[in-house]
Design brief:
Number of helices: 7
Structural class: mainly beta
Radius of gyration: 23 Å
Distance between the termini: 54 Å
Strand content: 35-45%
Number of strands: 33
Shape: globular
Helix content: under 10%
Largest sheet: 6 strands, antiparallel
Length: 506
């Protein structure tokens, strides 16, 4: 497989290169059916799992890799890479609990799998690492190389044709090579001039560029996003279909170009994982048909007076409350705070993984409030810990909060940060938060995916034409509050996260 470097617009972004046939978009006037290439269910020994909760905050996989008849699938929940051959389970590569794999590259000649992963144990910034494994023996083979930390924020990354990792950092002085993905005429055909793209494949030998393209058009005072895959080869533009039932974002981890000319997309939901081989379609059809459509209402929160049950709050006060619990000091002792018998249902509680390393029966001075499904009792967290309550709960198989556990979940953290009068869930935050347009997203908004997850935005900025956000969130994967920097706003938005503003912010 061949990979090439690309620096354009949003910075450096690429993925696996394919030799896509030089077919004009006008040659095909009908959208062919995308083919289901591979699928598997969830929650058994040979398939990826996910956390089956009312608010399924963590889904099992956010990246994959197809190499011939071999498929590599990330299983974040069960800390492994699963290898399928000819559609059947073959083996697995065990990972450490804190490794959330974001990108893979496989070299079949040397049986070498390279992985970029997010370190879930780090809570001070986005910490990305590079590691390697040989699938033949199923073991991690090298010490991980740190790519990103608080001092250097990694915005874009890809593997080149030799499997070397290429990177683009925030404020790095790197010039674009002048290749443009779409012309003004092509933007018009796609549905509007407000078009952004994320490059995932470039072949300079054939002058071919592939990207995830998103167009925004106004319909009845709403901003509608249309998203698809576009491939430009020479002066021709080819579009690839995205199955309508896909629910997750088109991002670097779930799109791959293969050396046989195919483009694959992975879709993950509660039923399982599906990998589609996408069909080519006529670019003119994009003007008439929405693919992954997200409707965001304009900000209409102006003039709303606080209800008696909600408090006006300043952004400074929100930040202070966020940091209070992010840095909260407390003492953990596994004999006192990891005893499941104190909970209402011992079968439905699980100690956050980061606390397991301190489970030696001794006192440990820690900071941060652990993740607790359904929890928001942050103000009484320390006193409850000292009284022998169970620290956190990352098992979300219960219908809600399990008595005897203490900590916060994602919406509980938002409820505490904004000093709400009671705990809101991701599906009820709309009672006091109002949707805002992408253009108006600002610090101390939230990005909420109802029924799934919510994060608090602390910074919004643009680098090389791409909008990024920094966020705070209570994460079930990390088991605590984490701060993440350099997150692609468009990626979050297209995966269903809606920007919202607190109605009573000062």
């Amino acid at each position: 497989m061949k990979l090439l470097r690309k620096s354009i617009g949003c910075g450096l972004a690429a993925a696996m290169l394919c030799s896509i046939p030089n077919v004009s978009a006008a040659a095909s006037t009908q959208m062919e059916q995308s083919r289901l290439y591979f699928s598997c269910t969830v929650n058994d020994g040979v398939n990826p799992g996910f956390i089956p909760a009312n608010e399924c905050e963590e889904i099992s996989s956010d990246t994959f890799f197809v190499s011939g008849d071999t498929i590599f699938v990330d299983d974040t929940v069960n800390h492994r890479i699963i290898v399928y051959e000819d559609g059947n389970y073959s083996k697995e590569i065990p990972l450490e609990w804190n490794m959330d794999v974001k990108q893979m590259y496989y070299d079949p000649q040397n049986d070498l799998l390279k992985m970029v992963y997010l370190d879930l144990n780090a809570d001070d910034a986005t910490h990305l690492f590079l590691t390697e494994a040989h699938p033949a023996n199923g073991q991690l083979e090298s010490e991980a190389e740190e790519l990103s930390n608080a001092e250097k924020v990694l915005l874009e990354y890809c593997f080149d044709q030799d499997g070397n990792l290429l990177t683009q950092y925030l404020d790095e002085n790197e010039t674009a090579d002048g290749i443009s993905l779409v012309s003004e005429q092509q933007k018009y055909a796609f549905g509007g001039s407000d078009l952004s793209s994320r490059i995932f494949s470039v072949d300079k030998d054939t002058n071919q560029t592939a990207a995830i393209a998103t167009s925004y058009v106004q319909q009845d005072n709403l901003s509608v996003a249309r998203e698809c895959i576009l491939v430009q080869q020479g002066g021709e533009m080819v579009s690839f279909a995205v199955p309508k039932d896909h629910t997750n974002t088109l991002d670097r981890g779930c799109i791959q170009s293969a050396d046989d000319g195919s483009i694959y997309q992975m879709n993950v939901d509660e039923s399982g994982i599906q990998i589609f081989q996408l069909a080519e379609r006529d670019i003119a059809e994009l003007k008439e048909e929405d693919l992954l459509q997200r409707i965001i209402a304009e900000d209409d929160a102006n003039g709303i007076e606080p209800m008696a049950s909600y408090k006006s709050i300043t952004k400074t006060r929100v930040k202070s409350r966020m940091d209070t619990y992010y840095k909260l000091p407390w003492t953990f002792n596994s004999n006192r705070n990891a005893n499941k018998s104190v909970t209402a249902n011992p079968q439905q509680v699980q100690l956050p993984s980061w606390l397991s390393s301190y489970a030696d029966g001794r006192d440990h001075s820690l900071t941060n409030v652990p993740y607790c499904w359904g929890g928001w009792n942050a103000e009484t967290f320390v006193s409850n810990i000292n009284a022998g309550k169970f620290a956190g709960n990352t098992c979300t198989t219960s219908s809600g909060y399990v008595s005897g556990t203490v900590g916060m979940d994602c919406s509980g953290y938002v409820s505490v940060a904004f000093d709400l009068p009671y705990k809101h869930g991701t599906s009820t935050l709309s009672n006091c938060f109002t949707k805002v347009s992408n253009a108006n997203v600002a610090a101390y908004n939230i990005m909420n995916k109802a029924g799934s997850h919510v994060v608090i935005v602390t910074k919004v900025y643009t680098a090389n034409g791409t909008k990024y956000v920094d966020t705070y969130e209570e994460s079930s994967s990390a088991g605590k509050i984490v701060v993440r920097t350099g997150r692609d706003f468009l990626s979050l938005y297209n995966s269903g996260f809606v920007p919202m503003k607190y109605n009573y912010i000062q």
